[in-house]
Amino acid sequence: MSTDEYGLVEDVLTGRMSRRDLIVRLMAAGVSLTAITGLLTETGIGGEAEAAELAAPAMAPKRGGTLKIGFLVPAASTDPVTLFNEGAILTMQLACEYLCYPRADGTLQPKLATSWHATKPDTWTFNLRKNVKWHDGKPFTADDVVSTFNLLTDPKLASAALSAYKGVLSPGNVKKVDAHTVRFHLDRGYVDFPYLVSCLVYNAAILPKNYKIGDFVKGGVGTGPFILTNYTPKVGATYKRNPHYWAKGLPYLNGVQFKYYADQTSVVLAMQGGAIDSYPNLPYQGSQAIFGSSKFKILKHNGSSYREFHMRVDQKPFSDKRVRQAVALCLNRPALVKGLLNGLGNLGNDHAFAPAFALSKVTNQIPQRKQDYVQAKKLLAQAGYAKGLDITLTTENYLEIPQYAVVVKEQLKPAGINLTLNIEDQNTYYGAGANQPWLDVPMGMVDWAPRGTPSQVIDPAYLTGGIWNSAHWSNKTYDRLVNGSDTQLNATKREAMVLQAAKIQNDEVPAIIAYWIQDAHATSTRVHNVKGPVAPYPDFSAVYLA
């Protein structure tokens, strides 16, 4: 491939060109489909099945049929206000919608809002879509939006969105301008605020006014393409086509059947046996058979999902940053990405600016941390641990995390750091309310779903007092830089703040971010037109079955 062709790829990654347009341009230039497939795979913007589908002549969508989706049993609530588990998120999103929705290139497209703008960084106005009906036939209006965000920001409720809106949006600060216009008055400037009302804050799905927690599973709640008709805990959910959906001509499907499975192996077997058509947010570990089969399409995209390997900075031995740095220096990050993800990831550098974020072009200036046992031992000795350390690592039994913990145990041994592993089920590890063990353990691992902006990653996890600050880290300079970058409209000044913040986090290492996970979504070859993928949140509204 020539420099010009890689330049076109850059246009795709920055949102200036679609993947289909890229393939059309390359084929017109005489590039073979095989070479195009290699380019898409190398750059992480597609694969063989996707290239073939994009390059093929457009197929007329076929109406009818039922899409069968499989995923793990939701760990807890499936209510839009309180849910936090991916199975629950997917269940809800088939019926409910957001003000806007991320495209595969990371830009936002309209959904229940048709446009938005800021008069200043802390004041955002959203124009709402007209002629939208709730599943019960009532009209969608600004009152519904106001009511939804009052629910999500009410500290008395167990909203899982409180972490996303803390310090950004307070109860009562969303105002109705008219029947189809709302205005958000933020606690502080936030130049990326529209991402906080997209599915990248998964609880931000718009609900009807007077909604009560628990109503969703009764069915008939939402404006989306599919109407929930039955929900059975630990079994699944069924949906029928919304005949009054606002997007003309959609959906093509007659309905959707969502099946829950006890474990990943069961989902994979169901996919292989044809019992389901789609496995969203497909992990590599345990799903190798799907990745290696021509029966399935794998949609891939650079993502912002990651695993946080945190250390309590307010307790010995991790109160000494040299110990944290030593742990970070023990990891062989390329080996982790290859072994755990089969290369379906990007190296992390212990700061929160994912390669999927545009600002990563700035933070890439920070030298990549590499495995260095000599320096790790030196730092441990300086901190008073020349004879090594015995530590317990507590984590969850979820996706590749148990394997990650085992590999970390082995990679820390040569530096004299001996880990005892305590792997718990998700309900035990995360807990609820005032009892959340993962926030108390001296050293732990946690899975973080994708976010649309760096501050969505940072605010709950790394700012002083963050609701999910599992490392109990506090750096006031870091706080000031991150908060300042959220209000800074000058790109050069914002980038300088971001770089300084990333350097601080990289040096302090409250948590190790060893890799960022590429989003992967598997479907059978008969499934077409899945939008996204922003795993675990694909858009099924325009899907059809061949």
Within CATH, the superfamily of the largest domain carries the name: Dipeptide-binding Protein, Domain 3
Can you identify the CATH class of the largest domain? Alpha Beta
Structural class: alpha+beta
Determine the strand fraction and express it as a percent band.
15-25%
Largest sheet: 6 strands, antiparallel
The assigned CATH architecture of the largest domain is Roll
Question: How does this model look, in words?
Answer:
This protein is an alpha+beta fold and 546 residues long. The chain has four domains: 53 residues; 120 residues, D-Maltodextrin-Binding Protein, domain 2; 107 residues, Dipeptide-binding Protein, domain 1 (Alpha-Beta Complex), CATH 3.90.76.10; 217 residues, Dipeptide-binding Protein, domain 3, CATH 3.10.105.10. Helix content is 30%, strand content 21%. It has 18 helices and 20 strands. Strands 11, 12, 13, 16, 17 and 18 form a six-stranded antiparallel beta sheet that branches. Strand 14, helix 14 and strand 15 form a beta-alpha-beta unit. Helix 10 runs antiparallel to helix 13. The chain is globular. The two termini are 33 Å apart. The model has no long low-confidence stretch (mean pLDDT 90).
Quick structural gist:
This protein has 546 residues and is an alpha+beta fold.
Protein topology:
Elements: H1 3-13, H2 19-28, H3 33-43, H4 48-55, E1 66-72, H5 86-93, E2 100-102, E3 108-110, E4 113-120, E5 123-128, H6 142-152, H7 162-165, E6 174-178, E7 181-185, E8 226-232, E9 236-241, E10 255-261, H8 264-273, E11 278-279, H9 288-291, E12 296-311, H10 321-329, H11 333-341, E13 345-347, H12 360-363, H13 373-382, E14 389-396, H14 401-412, E15 417-424, H15 426-430, E16 443-448, H16 454-462, H17 476-487, H18 491-508, E17 511-512, E18 515-524, E19 527-528, E20 544-545
Parallel strand pairs: 1-10, 14-15
Antiparallel strand pairs: 2-3, 4-5, 5-7, 6-7, 8-9, 9-10, 11-18, 12-16, 12-17, 12-18, 13-18, 19-20
